[in-house]
Every structure is written in structure tokens, then in C-alpha cells.
């Protein structure tokens, strides 16, 4: 069941500098509005990254593992179990999100990314991978 995350829907362009995801102003305003406390970044489906907001994290994480098995997302499950790479960080105002080498490699992220608000999470995609994903869906 999808849970409303109070308006964090849409597609936004962003970038990665070094080991940080630089959040776009729209996401910063959203975080300032809801004051999530903490966010969690992890490997997601289709080689994207999932960013969960604290109120949704515990339930969403368990649902995610079940969904991964249902979708036969072996690569994501393998990456998560071998080296969990779940990054937890505080979100006071809108600092950048730390990005590990393992998650960056998993998602194929270079410098340009697309951030997509979806149901109870935010998805972070390499720009080229997002374009291919959208083309395949059409």
C-alpha cells in the first residue's frame, strides 16, 4: 500500500560531486517542510538507489526485501546481503547525501542524476539509465 509522503512526487535533475549527492532545491524545500530527521540510502530496483525518509523506513525496508524476492531482483538482494551499504544520515536542513563507492557503482552513477519521487521513497537514477528505463516503459 502506497503511503503519501506529502508531495514529494515528480522528476528532478541533480548532480553528484565527489562522494555527495547534491539535492535539488525542490527536494530541499520538501525536507525543510517535513523535517524527516534521518534519511536512508540503499540499493534499489532496476539499478537505481532508494532514499527513504525516517517515518517510512522500518516498514518500507521490510516490504522492499519481500518485493525484491517477488521481482527476482537477485542483483539487488545479493548486493544488499553481501555488503548492506545502507547509508543513514541526519537531515537537519538540506545537507548533501553521502554516497559510497559501492552504491555509486551499483547504480552506474557518474555526475548527472535524476531524482524521482515515488510513493513512499525517492529514487535516484544515473541520467542515462533513467532515460533507458523510461524509453523501455513507453
Please, could you describe this protein's structure?
With 138 residues, the chain is an alpha+beta fold. It has a single domain, classed as 3-Layer(aba) Sandwich (Chemotaxis protein chec), CATH 3.40.1550.20. Helix content is 38%, strand content 31%. It contains 5 helices and 8 strands; from the N terminus they run ββαββααββαββα. A hairpin with a 2-residue loop joins strand 7 and strand 8. The radius of gyration is 14 Å and the shape is globular.
Number of strands: 8
- What's the CATH architecture? 3-Layer(aba) Sandwich
Q: What count of helical segments does DSSP give?
A: 5
- Average pLDDT value? 76
Strand content: 25-35%
| H and E order | EEHEEHHEEHEEH
Uncertain ranges:
1-5, 72-83
Q: Count up the domains.
A: 1
Radius of gyration: 14 Å
Strand order of the largest sheet: 5-3-4-8-7-1-2-6
Q: How widely separated are the two ends?
A: 25 Å
CATH topology: the name is: Chemotaxis protein chec
CATH class: Alpha Beta
> Biggest sheet, open or closed, and with what strands and sense?
8 strands, antiparallel
Multimerization status: single chain
Amino acid at each position: 500500500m502506497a503511503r503519501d509522503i506529502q508531495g514529494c512526487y515528480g522528476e528532478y535533475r541533480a548532480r553528484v560531486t565527489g562522494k555527495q549527492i547534491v539535492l535539488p532545491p525542490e527536494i530541499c524545500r520538501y525536507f525543510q517542510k517535513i523535517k524527516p530527521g534521518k534519511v536512508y540510502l540503499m540499493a534499489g530496483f532496476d539499478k537505481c538507489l532508494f532514499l527513504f525518509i525516517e517515518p517510512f523506513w522500518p516498514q518500507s525496508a521490510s516490504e522492499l526485501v519481500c518485493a525484491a524476492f517477488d521481482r527476482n531482483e537477485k542483483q539487488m538482494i545479493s548486493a544488499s546481503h553481501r555488503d548492506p551499504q545502507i547509508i543513514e544520515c541526519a537531515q537537519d536542513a538540506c545537507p548533501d547525501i553521502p554516497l559510497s563507492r559501492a552504491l555509486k557503482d551499483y547504480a552506474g552513477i557518474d555526475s548527472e542524476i535524476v531524482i524521482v519521487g515515488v510513493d513512499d521513497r525517492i529514487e535516484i537514477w544515473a541520467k542515462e539509465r533513467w532515460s533507458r528505463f523510461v524509453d523501455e516503459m513507453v
